Amino acid sequence: MEEKLLNIIQEIKETGNPALKAQKMTSVITDGLRNQALNLYEAYLLHWEVIHATRDSCILPAWNRAVRISTCLALLNHRLLALAFHDRDCAQQAHQWGMEAFGLCAEKRAHYIMDRYPEFIRMEYDDEDLLKELLKVRETYPVLSDEQGPYHVESFPYHYFAPEKFLLDKTDFSKEKIIGNDVETILIAINT
Q: Domain limits at 33?
């Protein structure tokens, strides 16, 4: 394993602040996807650790970080990825934490997803109308107003993967669950 990666693992383990842990893990994911060092399933598993750390930073009294719209979007996207990977347990947990985040969200304003968040976070494989709405936003993202965001495209898996498209196409990603030794080592290291 690269020395840089070992240093990142050490940094993650040494920080007690869950928001900083989430930030460091997000860097690992984005760098890994950009450099094609991570496959989507590996990034998905690492992102679940980001979700855990972010949730801790929002609900633990010691950290008291505000839940933002972007927090809710991350949970929605993760649920869609869980559905694409046929990971029912994770999809259910993302739904529960999504509803928790929705209730705690500090940003109260009109938003294309937040106005109907309970409907979106309950979405299943066959909710074509909602999936098409998300896909339309993804496809028109370059011309959308910054004031109306944040957009789900700006949250993991970013532009690397469009879970709504693959759910609409009924693409089966359950066979894509491949975890390399490096990612397995990271997951074990940050959880022990």
A: 3-190
